[in-house]
Design a protein that fits this description.
Layout (H helix, E strand, L loop, with lengths): L5 E2 L5 E2 L13 E4 L1 H9 L2 H4 L8 E5 L5 E5 L1 E2 L2 E2 L9 H6 L6 H5 L2 E6 L2 E6 L6 H4 L4 E2 H9 L8 E2 L4 E5 L2 E4 H15 L5 H16 L8 H24 L5 H19 L6 E2 L1 H16 L9 H18 L6 E2 L1 H15 L2 H9 L1 H10 L9
Parallel strand pairs: 1-9, 8-11, 14-15
Antiparallel strand pairs: 2-10, 3-5, 4-5, 6-7, 8-9, 12-13
């Protein structure tokens, strides 16, 4: 049973779809020394042939501390089997795997004595199981008990930037946050939900909304996406880069190019696509994902940008985009923005993200 001090997004579900993507896109560590020792004692390279060329990398930080990472092989974890399952798990059981492998794609954020558990948007199978998987609360019990080599993220700022130039206390933010989560729980169309949250934020601040400017808002979205597209083109042209990373960069720049071409097109999410994106929005709010970008407006602006990209770039045979169309777009976008260089660009693009949120006109009943 889930402890009373642990929360998950409303109606959140997930199950592993065995796509193996989580074994392809990330640095694989740090690995607990105890896990490394047991694999060495079991002579894992004798039990798993691909590991004979090397499976462990040691990295030393400036303080002289050693951290262990699993190696990649042909663009994926050396222990990834052809059936997209884990060789370590198959040989020795789940307990033999590093804790970060067992935790992903769940993400935990601590605030005071409360823990929030969400599913990361980068999970390649989330859009397939977000409605019919096991309740996230059932997974949360297991993942909270896992050992960790790194401390969990904590949310405990002294001040929250509610609007540009306007900060409030953490206790005041708790009241506003609850009202925003209530909006996300109403299952409104995602763009309407975000603009309703914008209204609520300004109401709490006691300030009037700025005049909308659809053209300037569209230019702000286009500027951010174009900046990211150019960086991806450079990554593709880098002949010294890892071939797998160049392949992903090419995929990302194609996505961004399509999004830019269709940014003004009147497409919208279908009910399944909206439910999927709504779950991501609930997770974004509960995990305080906006904090990475400095303030509430920047964070909501980033989510609105994600929504715009999904409706502009997702593959669909009709105007309405379902979860199967929105999911792969969000996965590629999220994995791209988890890169430190990309994250740095998005932080520098804070003014554009604010403009996108504040200048977007209210949504009518027409196409979104």
């Amino acid at each position: 049973m889930l402890p009373s001090n642990v929360q998950t997004p409303k109606d959140s579900r997930w199950d592993c779809h065995s796509c193996g993507d989580c074994c392809r896109f990330y640095e694989l560590g740090p690995v607990e020394p105890e896990i490394v020792r047991k694999l060495q004692e079991n002579r894992v390279e004798e039990a798993w042939k691909p590991a004979t060329a090397g499976w462990l990398e040691e990295r030393t930080n400036p303080a002289g501390e050693v951290a262990y990472f699993l190696k990649h092989h042909d663009g994926h974890c050396v222990f990834l089997r052809d059936d997209n399952l884990c060789a370590i798990h198959g040989l020795y059981g789940a307990e033999a795997k590093p804790s970060f492998c067992r935790e992903y794609p769940l993400h935990i954020v601590d605030a005071g004595d409360t823990s929030t558990v969400i599913v990361r948007a980068s999970c390649g199978g989330y859009h397939k199981t977000y409605e019919n998987g096991r309740l996230l609360s059932e997974h949360a019990v297991d993942v909270l008990a896992l050992p960790r080599t790194l401390a969990r993220r904590r949310f405990e700022p002294e001040q929250i930037e509610l609007l540009p130039g306007l900060t409030i206390s953490l206790s005041r933010w708790s009241e506003i946050e609850s009202s925003l989560i209530d909006i996300a729980n109403q299952n409104l169309p995602v763009d309407i939900a975000l603009l309703t949250m914008r209204q609520r934020v300004f109401a709490h601040a006691g300030q009037p909304l700025p005049a909308s400017d659809a053209n300037r808002a569209r230019l702000a979205a286009g500027a951010v996406l174009e900046g990211l597209r150019r960086l991806m083109v450079k990554a593709v042209d880098d002949v010294n880069a890892d071939p797998f990373r160049r392949k992903f960069a090419d995929q990302a720049q194609q996505l961004l190019t399509t999004g830019l071409q269709n940014l003004a097109q009147p497409r919208k999410l279908s009910p399944t696509g909206n439910r999927y994106m709504t779950q991501l929005l609930r997770s974004f709010l509960l995990a305080r994902g906006w904090q990475t970008f400095g303030g509430v407006c920047e964070g909501l602006g980033l989510f609105l940008l994600q929504y715009r990209l999904v409706v502009a770039a997702s593959a669909a045979s009709a105007d309405d985009i379902g979860a199967d169309g929105a999911g792969p777009t969000m996965v590629t976008w999220t994995r791209m923005t988890e890169n430190r260089a990309i994250l740095g660009i998005l932080k520098m693009a804070r003014p554009a993200l604010i403009d996108l949120l504040l200048l977007t006109p209210e949504v009518t009943d027409g196409p979104r």
